Amino acid sequence: MSNIKSFKITAKKMTLRNMIELYHSCQNVSHQIYIYSKKSMGKIKDIIDFETYRMINPDSEYVIVIEGKEAKHIVNRFEKLWSNNALLKG
User: Fold this and answer.
1) Distance of CA 51 to CAs 3, 47, 56, 70, 80, Å?
2) For the CA atoms of 50, 51, 54, 56, what is the dihedral angle to 10 degrees?
3) Would residue 90 count as lying in a domain?
4) Which domain of life is it from (predicted)?
5) Tag placement on the chain: N or C end, fewer CB within 10 Å?
6) What residues make up the domain containing 37?
7) Sheet of 32-36: strands edge to edge?
8) Nearest 5 degrees, angle CA 53-CA 57-CA 59?
9) Which class for 2: exposed (0-12), middle (13-18), buried (19 or more C-beta within 10 A)?
10) pLDDT in tens, 53-77
């Protein structure tokens, strides 16, 4: 059964390195990633989509939605990393 979990992230924390780490974590378990800004949304099919979306929609924060069996685990892991300032520097 598929789970859906979301979280907010500021643009400052959404570095290229953090996006790559999140993308690979989701792809390793075949999960879907969606990203929302104030004016639009997109389904992330590859890492280039992730960076392109961020460049085209330069908002102060985004909502990222993960869909899949391990969605809760992935989101919890990244929220913990990002909230503890243990961010990967881009």
Assistant:
1) 25, 7, 9, 23, 22
2) -110
3) no
4) Bacteria
5) N
6) 3-83
7) 3-10, 61-68, 32-36, 41-44
8) 125
9) exposed
10) 988 888 889 999 999 999 999 999 8
Consecutive H or E run containing 76: helix 71-83
Q: Is residue 89 in some structural domain?
A: no
Degrees, nearest 5: CA angle 27-22-36: 100
Closest by CA to 9, choosing from 43, 52, 46, 59, is 59
Please tell me the distance from the alpha carbon of residue 76 to that of residue 7, in angstroms, as a whole number: 9
Number of domains in the chain: 1
Q: Which amino acid is at 22?
A: L
Positive or negative, the CA dihedral 26, 3, 63, 88 is: negative
71, 36 Cβ separation under 8 angstroms: no
Q: Which residue has the higher pLDDT, 13 or 65?
A: 65
